[in-house]
Amino acid sequence: MIDYSAALAVAAIVRTGSFDKAARALGVTPSAISQRVRLLEERLGAVLIERGNRTATEKGAWLCRHVELVGMLETDLLERLPGLGDPLAGPVTLDIAVNADSLGTWFLPAAAAFTRTSKALLRIAVDDQDHTADWLRRGHVVAAVTSLEKPVAGCKVSPLGRLRYHATASPDFIARHFPDGVTAAALSRAPAITFNQKDGLQQDWAMKTLGATEPGPTHWLPSTQGFVEAALLGMGWGLNPTRLVADHLASGRLVELVPGATLDVTLHWQVSRLVSSRFPELTRAVLEAAREALL
After folding, report:
1. Shared-domain flag, residues 252 and 286
2. Which intervals hold domain HTH lysR-type (predicted)?
3. Using one digit for the tens of pLDDT, what is the confidence trace for 250-272?
4. CA-closest candidate to residue 271, choices 104, 130, 91, 148
5. CA 94 centroid distance within chain
6. Domain region containing 154
7. Are 69 and 18 in the same domain?
8. Dist CA 274 CA 255 (whole Å)
9. I need a surface site. Which of 130, 142, 213, 234 has the fewest CB within 10 A?
10. Do 157 and 167 have their domain in common?
11. 67-125 per-position pLDDT tens digit
């Protein structure tokens, strides 16, 4: 049998980030929380909580997702049989993985619309759209905005549309680094701006537009809004979503490296079938926001 008091303790620690806060949430002492986690880890022969930052290990994440799924089923049952009592785990928290540019342009209105009508809480993680599906496969999240069209096991897929990107830089940057025009050779010497090691948009655009096969120098900047600001300040060139740079392009504060040479990224919504049936309003909110914002 699963020790649900211990499983709830692990999930509460991950949710609150603290043994003390988890104890208050569950109405027990911190020592009781510690003992439950220790005994469960000894029983499983695996560490479930990283003690330094109070995050779940891979096995701990699987346990937390199970607790959340049980919580969904419990909430559903209590709506039909309220005499059974109150949910033990409190509000359900839905873990979602989203790419940074979606989060910075269109996803938050969807999240806000969902929370206005649902008691569920959201925990949003950020990763590249080519990698968010891995979070689903590992059981770390129950839904994701992803570039993957093929459904992950146990998930439903809905197309969202295309997020369009423009390769932009400041007029000063263009004048300094491309005095004779934007060519593959000039691009190999001009500093780009890259979100992180998973970000291949700049190289994809360079290959598609100019046939450039070798990446040039780059600044590393893991911030969607910072990307735009860095381009405005002349640090480098980079791919930015239309919504974030349309006004800057119209005013001339930013210019396209190659006018009209855009790059589209097709996105999909993948969600656990259990979550899809229990919280259909989440998918409705995401699809509605995507229809308004994406191509």
Report:
1. no
2. 2-57
3. 999 999 999 999 999 999 999 98
4. 148
5. 12
6. 93-161+267-292
7. yes
8. 46
9. 213
10. no
11. 777 777 776 666 676 666 655 556 778 889 999 999 999 999 999 999 999 888 898 99
